[in-house]
Amino acid sequence: xxxxxxxxxxxxxxxxxxxxxxxxxxxxxxxxxxxxxxxxxxxxxxxxxxxxxxxxxxxxxxxxxxxxxxxxxxxxxxxxxxxxxxxxxxxxxxxxxxxxxxxxxxxxxxxxxxxxxxxxxxxxxxxxxxxxxxxxxxxxxxxxxxxxxxxxxxxxxxxxxxxxxxxxxxxxxxxxxxxxxxxxxxxxxxxxxxxxxxxxxxxxxxxxxxxxxxxxxxxxxxxxxxxxxxxxxxxxxxxxxxxxxxxxxxxxxxxxxxxxxxxxxxxxxxxxxxxxxxxxxxxxxxxxxxxxxxxxxxxxxxxxxxxxxxxxxxxxxxxxxxxxxxxxxxxxxxxxxxxxxxxxxxxxxxxxxxxxxxxxxxxxxxxxxxxxx
Length: 373
Fold this sequence. Notes:
34% helix; elongated; alpha/beta; eight-stranded mixed β-sheet
């Protein structure tokens, strides 16, 4: 193997941070010329203004410089032609037609909806942390923020305002935060817009486009942060993804538990299966060891009992105590499972992620492939 061949091999192994595939597999590497100890490397990006351009160029430079015998590296950056982009999108789809929903019953991706009856129970915070914790388990994770009217996932994951999916022709590549591919309506609002005042048809079309037009690639798990209640989006997703599984989030308070039970029952009416209950904002320990239960107790267990009434046992997977670190992580965009993994709330969420990752679909009777790397 010549020195140029070794440089090409090193450069080809660089991973595109959005597509999460080696740039050699994506046909992004061009001419490589080695003159003595100096290498000139040619690459092409998918589009003009690619948001990952600087990172890719630096990674390519570092990869070429890591080859023994290379002391100097110059990188020539170009852009794919329309024909090359079309070939790339066809390769990424792997033969699937454009705008086809890839998460049907035959998909290897496990789809898990995180729902609640009431708003304000910390459902989105739980979803964001669970997604990151699953990614830390080695799973390929996607997250759809379907809470269109109350979207908060971008902020919880630290995605900067104004960040949008990258468009390659008719493909949209979701931003990646903490190894989680994420899409939210908040990424599509124009400057100055802060409110989404849409009704049923627009909500249905938005959710459908998130699931068909956004290219997540191969996923082990797709989490969907549902809006509270049993309205238009819950009905739409029930029609689009009747095979999805459901995690119900509640607080210990009986008033929240009563509504959470209804959200689980509505999911069942569409054929979805409730695989567990997560109780959030549970009692927490004060410095003197006493427990403070601001929101009462027993709500999570009551939801689990009620949803198990027909003989299909629904476990309570976790009781997450109130935690300043959990709140602080959401405000700062650094999920507590990363920023303070020893916190009691983080430990509870990580435990749920481990059960999903390592027991696969044991919670629902099917096996989840664990793909590392």
